[in-house]
Amino acid sequence: MCRPDFPALRRPSYVHRGGLHEHRKGGGRRVRHQHASAWDDWVEGPACSGPAPVATPGRHGKPGDRTNPGRRGRRGRRGRRGEEHSMRKHVVVLGANFAGLTAALSVRHELHGDVDVTVVSPRANFLFTPSLIWLPFGKRDRGDITFDVEPTLRHHGVDFVQAAATGLDPTARTVTLQDGSTLRYDYLVIATGYRNDSDVVPGFAENAVTITTLEDAERAGHAWELFLRDPRDVVVAATQGAGCFGAAYEFLFNLSFQLRRHDLHQRVKLTYVTAEPFLGHFGIGGLPHGEQLLGMFLRKEGIDSRLNVGIDHVAQDALVLETGEEVPFGYGMVVPPFLGQEWLTAVDGLTDAKGMVAVRDSYQTLKYDDVYAVGAAAAVEVPWTTPTPVGIPKTGFPTEVMAHVAARNIAAQIRGEEPTDEKAFGDIKAICVMDAGNNGVVILADKMLPPRKHGVLIPGPQAHVMKLGFEKYFLWKMRNGYVQLP
């Protein structure tokens, strides 16, 4: 066992309260240093700089068995049931966006800091994904909707490792990182998000754009600039199996608003193609009067539509539907289905066919009590069958709820209690603001999925103002780590 010798994995501050000192590097940024510590217990890797520290018995060693000379022994803390905990527990969170950041900071909050938490992510930034709908039109750039997570996490006593996870051994309780080193955990939260299923529709990646990631939205912006030089018909589509219909609607109406701004609305035909069985289904079964409201929006904007249809393939200048119809375009934005991270599928009994992690209502995985999954990485079963398959949206609000439930359950386990907090995905409240350029719709329901008692859609320009305000508030909230705020 030895210290890793690569820049992405700094030796974090959580592992040792003593032996920690700081100096200023070159008169500038403050750099934290740490002598031999429990980081040597948590990380194993092939690369060493200098002699390796004395091996320790690891997680299962007795309190007095640790031979690492830089590690001071800690008195065990007693849980509510009287169990003796020989050392502080280590929670690893994979992912640093909505789900990951919320879960990591919530665990620290629940245990009043008496836990070691490490966040692992290949990206150094938090991304406010709801604002990606504006980026292609130049209303936002990446600097407006991202921030560096490391200072936020450090301020709250959470360590950050910028690296991609590539493997998981639930039996050994280790996560393998991209350089081959392993990181040990007592509890794991998988918040690795999604990746686009580019294979669901042949030609999608080559001949259309999407807005589901920051890089995708930037490419969509470049394509928009080219479109403005040679305007032709436009198609916005959500494929079979897609679940992010809200983003498709928002982009559709924002695009229509931009066409008006550029005096192109009368010159360009705009078509919406969707797998939804009816307008306003949203992947959640629809809400009262939603079909009529969305139909009114489309008629007002002069938008044509194709409903309940799959896409066969995307040609260079046309969307070819499964019915054989071709819908020509000069600019095409397509929302695909999402998949889980591919490396997770190698873990026995962890994921479904799409690579999403199967979970209980406690957000523990079906097979492993100490492994959780939240956010887009968690599998949600579609409770209905539609003629053309549709998915379910896992948006920001339910993602936060899932992360808080997981954090409370992990805290309970660390205290020696049973993880009894449960909230089925379908029972989470639906709270969403759909932007439409200078208009919009506020969507509220008592449950994400039917049967529901209450559901309402409130249209009007106030929705646009609310979305602008929420963007500023949420970025402030997450940048400061105030995840306990609504």
UniProtKB/TrEMBL annotation:
Species for this entry: Nocardioides iriomotensis
Gene Ontology MF terms in the entry: oxidoreductase activity
Biological classification of the source: Bacteria, Bacillati, Actinomycetota, Actinomycetes, Propionibacteriales
Sequence ranges of Basic residues compositional bias: 22-35, 69-80
Protein name: Pyridine nucleotide-disulfide oxidoreductase
InterPro entries tied to this protein: FAD/NAD-bd_sf, FAD/NAD-binding_dom, SQRD
Chain intervals for the UniProt region annotation (Disordered): 17-36, 42-87
Residue span, FAD/NAD(P)-binding domain: 90-380
Lineage: superkingdom: Bacteria
